[in-house]
Design goal:
Layout: H1 22-39, E1 50-53, H2 61-71, E2 74-77, H3 83-99, H4 106-110, H5 126-148, H6 154-164
Amino acid sequence: PEITPNVLEPGVRRYGLGEDDGPANVRAVVEGQMAAMAIHSRWMGVKTETIHATGGASSNREILRILADVHDAEVHQFTVGKSAALGAALRALHGERKAAGEEIPWEDVVAGFAEPVRESRIAPDPARAAVYREFLELYRACENHALRGGPDPASLREAFARKHSS
């Protein structure tokens, strides 16, 4: 099962893609993950301006390009691996220092550990970001249909395809 979105019954759900279109399916998986992150982080009520990417997929600039465009935010690569463990360790140090009465700024805690690769910046493309803003609403409708039995998004998908086919 997935946590975000909450998927209790795993399975493949395709909207407008056939099983035989491998490259399109791969791109759809990447776009779907990025769309899910964008949609399911809206509850925080903040506009993402910068994303620091880490982990295996962060070495793929094409994936990071999609991430930048879907979120309409700059993306920077980190060189550090095992970032979840590192983040937990740094947060533990920060908490331990605060408990001991030392007010240490978070920026000081992460200095030297969490610096992005200087030349890794990927800026979002405004035209693609605009298309992805529309795509997010289509994705939300597809997710609602697939996971909660919402209305069939076929007409929305067809309208999106007509508008953006080239």
